[in-house]
Amino acid sequence: MKNFKLSSINKGSAESLFQAELEKVLENIADPNTKAEAPREITIKVGFVPNSNRNGLNVKISSSSKLAKIKSVSSIAYINEEGISEVDPGQEKIDFDQTKIHSITADEEA
Predict the structure, then answer these.
(1) Which end is more exposed in the chain, N or C (fewer Cβ atoms within 10 Å of the end residue's Cβ)?
(2) Residue 14 pLDDT greater than 80, yes or no
């Protein structure tokens, strides 16, 4: 049994499974929509199912990763006669062409 190594199972598939999960973890770490300090982890699971004569076995390798969740976002919605809008009806609007400030009207929201 000394020659039975993780690297020899299914022609080294454990390494390729690990690399695939590592790519997901690194992408998740780089994603600005996740918490930077959140822990991530990779799990490699090796299962063994022997045959009835106990002279052979089926070896199954699987991998999974635990990633940081996407951060939630929120905004304020205003309710008016026409429905829901993310624009505050009393909000000031700067007209850069005219350098004037005026209130946004309901017609300008759409």
Answers:
(1) N
(2) yes
**CA distance readout (Å), 27 to 22, 30, 44, 67:** 9, 5, 19, 10
Strands 92-95 and 100-103: antiparallel
Cβ contacts of residue 44 below 8 Å, gap of 6+? 14, 17, 18, 61, 62, 63
DSSP characters over 13-75:
HHHHHHHHHHHHHHHHHH-TTB-TT---EEEEEEEEEE-TTSS-EEEEEEEEEE-PPBPP---
Question: What is the Cα–Cα distance from 16 to 40, expressed in whole angstroms?
Answer: 19
Q: How confident is the model at residue 75 (pLDDT cuts 50, 70, 90)?
A: confident
Instruction: Give the predicted TM-score (pTM) of the model.
Output: 0.64
pLDDT digits (tens, 9 = 90+) for 24-69: 999 999 999 999 999 999 999 999 999 999 999 999 999 999 999 9
Q: Output the six-digit token pair for 90.
A: 């009393």
